[in-house]
Write a structure and sequence with these properties.
By secondary structure, the protein is of the alpha+beta class. 36% of the residues lie in helices and 15% in strands. The strands form 5 sheets. Strands 9, 12, 13, 14, 15, 16 and 17 form a 7-stranded mixed beta sheet that branches. It has a 4-stranded mixed beta sheet with strand order 1-3-5-4. It is globular, with a radius of gyration of 25 Å.
């Protein structure tokens, strides 16, 4: 018999109401003050942190209630200690958070669930935490004050917000461990320099641009359920499927560097669009306008062949724009060795692609083979014509002789740094020149269709600035009639049946801010690379 699944989301230390618009800020402040008066009625002295932390707590419970899931809250003194790696928000302390949670429990605004939630916190901390849920009493207050999810954002004005993360060296797997432990996140104080300050400033500015941009996915309510199901997983065969939530308020991005180095990794993470399958990405909308995705084709291996000055580089780097076909494919081994000819390539192409990336990112052959053997989903069986996984990877090396010396060296992190630098430049240039919001997906970008030609030009130019000529692929695009492709105004031209969730979120967003229109198209606020607005209540608190 399957065990009852516990659906919960991690506590997010940086949630708040968008302080740019008074309506929702005043609403939450009023709610918070009302509850705080009740919780602190017997206390003569109030901690100045109480109102700030209570707002964070209420935002978390509002989101979990909205998505009909439980809310995990880490309540151990070690987690919230000054030296904890898991803790990010320095305003929150164990004593303050525990007082507020205990008060909400006592006044029956929340209740404790019987089970624990295991997993990661919003910013990477791990542990086993208690889970809670809002009671009808608190839900009634949420309804009374008419809060909506579109008004809830991350506190990007917060001085502790982790725009830049630096990971330690990843520990080796010890005897008895099923999986290799993840690398710990390091405190930035020891490693901060002017380069980090510049990156942090750029990310803060771009994320402020995202604050004033409506990002959504145009799907029916039934399709949204499918997306949630695809994002979910079972921990073991006895578990029920725990549906993950597509949390659209999580639209801010951060960069992660590896191995204590500012030149390894650096890719962008955090945005909700990174958590959905590629087949849905053409349904993403930016300010209620349809989008397309443009991809650097086989980016790392293109750069590798050019760095190694291989003759094959000329075939890989034609510099043209293709749809999903027509490229010289480094993962199609028939291009490199006749031994592969006759094998059903579509069946094994993804295997080759994943294996090559594992080999490029691994520090030695043993590590790569262990990853391949343990991943039964990506590598369900050894490809036809090979007796072992090693013979398969050896064949890949034989096919890619021009770059074979780069495999098993951990070079992947070096090329991730290069592609992240290119991505950062593309995003910044598109925002400055076109006032266009571009969503990064490592080596591809999602943009409004009306801005796609500008994006293609920018991607080519920036790659050339870094010394690379890389073909581009239109990875996904809305399927529209020829007559419709001339306007690209908004999603209204697309079938609207059963998309009540999308239009409700759009209505909430329009209610959140003063919307500017031009020919029925939402006009986004201008990208400003010089200034960004801090959240008002954050200015009131000083360490």
């Amino acid at each position: 018999m399957a065990r009852a699944a516990t659906r919960s989301i991690p506590f997010d230390e940086f949630l708040c109401i968008n302080g740019t618009y008074d309506k929702h800020l005043k609403t939450l402040t009023h709610l918070s003050d009302t509850l705080l008066d009740e919780l602190t009625a017997d206390r003569k002295r109030l901690d100045p942190k109480y109102p700030i932390v209570l707002e964070i707590v209420l935002c978390n419970f509002f989101i979990s209630n909205k998505h009909k899931v439980l809310q995990s809250v880490p309540l151990t003194s070690g987690y919230w200690s000054k030296n904890s790696r898991a803790k990010q928000n320095r305003i929150i302390s164990y004593r303050t958070l525990k007082f507020l949670i205990d008060g909400l429990l006592e006044k029956q605004y929340i209740r404790m669930a019987k089970n624990y939630s295991s997993g990661v916190t919003a910013i990477g901390g791990t542990g086993r935490t208690r889970i809670y849920e809002a009671t009808p009493k608190l839900k009634k207050l949420f309804d009374q004050y008419q809060l909506n999810e579109t008004a809830i954002i991350h506190q990007i004005g917060h001085k502790d917000y982790p725009f830049i993360q630096l990971k330690d060296f990843r520990p080796k797997k010890k005897k008895g461990q099923k999986t290799r432990p993840k690398a710990k996140q390091l405190r930035l104080e020891k490693y901060r320099n002017s380069y980090v300050d510049v990156m942090e400033y750029e990310l803060r500015t771009f994320n402020q641009f995202l604050t004033n941009t409506h990002l959504d996915i145009y799907v029916t309510d039934k399709e949204m359920e499918t997306i949630r199901r695809e994002m979910s997983h079972k921990k073991d065969d006895e578990d029920e499927l725990v549906l993950r939530e597509l949390q659209l308020h999580k639209k801010f991005i951060y960069r992660v560097f590896n191995n204590r180095s500012w030149e390894l990794g650096g890719r962008f993470y955090g945005g909700w669009w990174l958590s959905i399958k590629s087949k849905w990405r053409h349904r993403i909308t930016i300010n209620n306008q349809v989008t397309t995705e443009v991809d650097y084709s086989s980016m790392h291996f293109n750069m590798l062949y050019q760095d190694c000055k291989s003759e094959i580089a000329d075939e890989l780097t034609a510099g043209n724009v293709f749809d999903s076909s027509g490229l010289f494919d480094p993962y199609d081994l028939q291009n490199f060795n006749p031994k592969w000819q006759g094998v059903e390539i579509p069946e094994y192409r993804d295997m080759v692609k994943q294996a090559m990336n594992i080999m490029l990112n691994s520090s030695d052959e043993k590590e790569a083979l262990a990853v391949i053997r343990n991943d039964k989903v990506t590598f369900p069986k050894i490809p036809t014509g090979f007796r072992t996984w090693k013979s398969f990877t050896d064949h890949i090396l034989d096919c890619h002789k021009g770059i074979a010396h780069k495999f098993y060296t951990g070079a992947g992190l070096h090329y991730q740094f290069k592609d992240s630098q290119i991505a950062s430049r593309v995003m910044s240039n598109m925002a400055n020149k076109q006032n266009a919001c571009v969503l990064p997906n490592h080596d591809s970008f999602i943009v409004q269709v009306s801005k796609s030609e500008s994006l293609i030009k920018e991607m080519r130019d920036v790659a050339n600035e870094f010394g690379y000529k890389i073909s581009l692929t239109i990875a996904s695009s809305p399927k529209r009639d020829k007559e419709e492709t001339t306007s690209y105004k908004n999603v209204m031209a697309i079938n609207q049946d059963d998309c009540s969730g999308y239009f409700k979120r759009l209505e909430d967003y329009y209610d959140t801010l003063p919307v500017i229109y031009e020919d029925d198209v939402l006009i986004p606020p201008s990208y400003n690379p010089v200034t960004h607005r801090k959240l008002s209540w954050r200015e009131e608190y000083k360490d």
